[in-house]
Amino acid sequence: MTKRQQKQHLSDSPDGGYTIIESLVAMIVVSVLMIAIAPVMAYSVATRVQARRIELATQAARTYIDGLRTGAIQPSNDKDTSAPPDSAPAPTGSSGLYCVDLDQTAGCTTNKDFLIQGAWRNPANPTDPTTTGYELTVRVYRGDAFSSTGQMKKEQQSVANSALGDPKAPLVVMKTQIPPTTDGGASAYRSLCARTAGCQ
User: Fold this and answer.
1) Separation of alpha carbons 139 and 129, rounded Å
2) Is 2 helix (H, G, I), strand (E, B) or coil?
3) How is the chain split among helix, strand and coil, in percent rounded to 5?
4) Which of 45, 142, 154, 177 is the most exposed place for a label (fewest CB within 10 A)?
5) Is the entire prediction scored with pTM above 0.90?
6) What is d(CA 53, CA 126) in angstroms, rounded to the nearest whole number?
7) Which burial class, exposed, middle or buried, applies to 113 when counting CB atoms under 10 A from its CB (0-12, 13-18, 19+)?
8) DSSP state, residue 79
9) Tens-place pLDDT, residues 100-111
10) Residues 122-162: pLDDT tens digits?
């Protein structure tokens, strides 16, 4: 005698495949995970962009300082004979600021360009600082800083908590001493002594 084997239908098997409900639950789980990860990814990209912008602004500030030291760039009219230059007010407009144009458009109007404010102080020679040297504070702003309304700031912004940053705050603030650039002027050491009254 032969025994009949019963055929089991695939649809009746509990391991027969994914159902629509299981697929929907899997898609919901993946969506929740992507929603949780997306802000972190966006923030990390924004922080990387801001860090690169600050790196380029630092290079622009150093180039500006080197230009002042060699005499290729003349100091701006932002001076304060009584207070340190870092107390100089934030700029109110882009006129009088040094432009570093890094893109192909004319002028410093995009967020890829930089506007540099150089405020100097020399109580010993307030009219021509190049002959005796001076103390300098450099602030580097984004090129689009003046495109929106609001007061410019003096305090440097941070990479850690600013994401794409505040366009009204400087990317970089540097302080340095600029020695005399004319022939026959005082040495950098003597210039610093005269301006600070610290040498005997």
Assistant:
1) 19
2) coil
3) 35, 15, 50
4) 45
5) no
6) 34
7) buried
8) B
9) 888 877 777 777
10) 777 667 777 777 888 899 988 888 777 777 777 776 665 55
